[in-house]
Design brief:
Blueprint (H helix, E strand, L loop, with lengths): L2 H28 L6 H18 L3 H32 L10 H29 L9 H10 L1 H17 L10 H14 L8 H10 L4 H4 L1 E2 L6 E2 L4 H11 L3 E6 L1 E10 L16 H4 L5 E3 L4 H10 L4 E5 L5 E6 H9 L16 E2 L5 E4 L7 H4 L21 H9 L10 H4 L20 H9 L8 E4 L2 E8 L4 E8 L7
Parallel strand pairs: 2-3, 5-6
Antiparallel strand pairs: 1-7, 3-4, 6-7, 8-9, 9-12, 10-11, 11-12
Helix pairs in contact: 1-3, 1-4, 3-4, 3-6
């Protein structure tokens, strides 16, 4: 066998082994990631067909593939150098030192071969096939792994010793929300998720942790009718308010007796509309505790074909109501129909002097973000966060100030106080979760329009209110920071 023929045969063999090892190594490096369907097929075929036949543990196979790949690369480099050496020293009388151009040519050829067989070919196999082809050469792969078993065992031993020498990781586990962010980012990087779908996926995942209290329509906003209302009056009420289902009560809202359906009025003759009452056509009402998981409630309402449930608190009083639409809005956001009024006023309105006009139902957890731009030198957030957007900047500030990671999303951490005299402090000794509730709690009553309360650097002026709740509030800082 001539040297040239032997070199060619050895080169082909090493390149085939390199491509095979690189493919297997790629499989194990991609396991556990978000992958497109064609990529996942390779991993599924490997786990289902090939891996059991190798009769080695998963960690051992992964390490063997990595070792085989590195050995193949080293052997290729050695073979290339040997060929260059023998080419210039094969005939003693013509022996000479390789020229620079010959060395560069050999290096270029080696790099090109590595790019093709270590990168390009494994990628093509991984993306254009389902991975079933490798099952036919499992015996060859098993033989290669057993041949390098001594090297694999030695390397595994060294890695184990190195792991023992490493200091024990005492850091706490990631907060679930941070783990979720990592998964969503991985999905975007792998092309599985579009950026626009990220919040939808987050909402769907967090949906399972929410309770009815978080998504229900609160009691003050419930539209209901007494059971003594005549059907003619009920028809006029339905036409005016455009509701298809209305709770019916006897005496007070704490005694809901049923649900009045608008389409049931079609079955009533016009001559009976003045003599019959809503209580006579109402349907039974279903109740749910305010602490029930919304995911469980959604399944129940789908199974029982219900569209509305009355929410009760721990004392049995009516706390609100929840509909299928409320549950779906917890995932996809606001769902408006042709009867809904525009809700632009629900968004904060910034005034020239830096104050904001907000609704009484504005969440305290969003209050700090309103004034984030006024604390730009001290805080990273530069804009108010949208609904459902993770407050990463706020969480990072809390971590930098020594706050615990697990509590970064809790309301009490949003109310923390800092030594920074320009930082916005939120009241921390109140139970309210909305701005209207906070104003009422501070004042001790439902303030009238024009009343002002101040607390922890906040000036809260009531703009509109009823005898039951606060509708509009102007929020400003008593001592705005000087950023000049």
């Amino acid at each position: 066998m001539t040297p040239g023929y032997a070199y060619t045969l050895a080169l082909i063999l090493l390149l085939a082994i390199l491509a095979l090892a690189a493919y297997v190594d790629r499989i194990y490096s991609e396991m556990g990631k978000f992958l497109a369907r064609e990529y996942q097929d390779n991993i599924d075929s490997w786990e289902r067909v090939v891996e059991p036949r190798l009769r080695l543990g998963r960690e051992s196979i992964a390490l063997s593939a990595s070792v085989l790949r590195q050995l193949s690369l080293a052997a290729l480099a050695l073979l290339s150098g040997l060929r260059l050496y023998t080419h210039t020293t094969l005939v003693p009388t013509l022996a000479r030192t390789p020229s620079l151009s010959e060395v560069l040519r050999a290096v270029f050829e080696l790099i090109l071969l590595i790019l093709i067989f270590d990168r390009l070919l494994p990628q093509l196999l991984f993306s254009r096939t389902r991975g079933l082809w490798i099952a036919r050469i499992t015996p060859l792969l098993q033989t290669l792994f057993y041949l390098i078993l001594p090297v694999t065992l030695l390397l595994g031993l060294l890695l184990s010793i190195a792991a023992l020498a490493e200091p024990e990781d005492t850091t706490e586990e990631d907060h679930p929300s941070e783990a979720m962010d990592a998964l969503l980012e991985a999905g975007e990087e792998e092309g599985i998720l579009e950026e626009s779908d990220r919040e939808l996926v987050r909402s769907a995942v967090e949906f399972g942790d929410k309770i009815v209290l978080e998504v229900m329509t609160p009691r003050p906003e419930i539209f209901s009718v007494p059971g003594t209302l005549t059907l003619q009056e009920f028809t006029a009420t339905i036409n005016e308010h455009a509701f298809s289902r209305v709770p019916v009560y006897n005496g007070s809202l704490d005694h809901v007796t049923g649900i009045g359906f608008a389409h049931d009025l079609l079955k009533v003759l016009d001559t009976e509309a003045n003599t019959r009452t809503v209580a006579q056509i109402q349907r039974p009402a279903a109740f749910v505790p305010e602490t029930k998981k919304v995911a469980e409630l959604l399944r129940e309402m789908q199974r029982e074909k219900q569209h509305m449930r009355i929410v009760i608190d721990e004392y049995g009083s009516v706390a609100g109501l929840v509909t299928i639409e409320d549950l779906l809005e917890a995932i996809v956001g606001n769902i408006a129909d042709e009867h809904d009024e525009p809700e632009a006023d629900d968004e904060p309105i910034r005034e020239i002097n830096g104050a904001y006009v907000v609704s009484g139902s504005f969440e305290l957890s969003r209050l700090r973000d309103l004034f984030a731009d006024q604390f730009e030198p001290n805080h990273r957030a530069t804009r108010p966060a949208e609904d459902g957007e993770p407050h990463d900047a706020e969480e990072e500030r809390m971590e930098q100030d020594g706050g615990e990671r697990e509590e970064a999303e809790e309301l009490k951490d949003l109310r923390d106080t800092r030594d920074d005299p320009t930082a916005l402090r939120l009241p921390e000794h109140y139970e309210s979760t909305t701005l209207g509730g906070l104003v009422s709690e501070i004042a001790g009553h439902i303030p009238l329009p024009g009343e002002v309360v101040e607390e922890d650097g906040l000036r809260l002026e009531v703009l509109a209110s009823t005898d039951r709740r606060i509708d509009r509030i102007r929020v400003s800082l008593t001592n705005p920071p000087d950023l000049s």
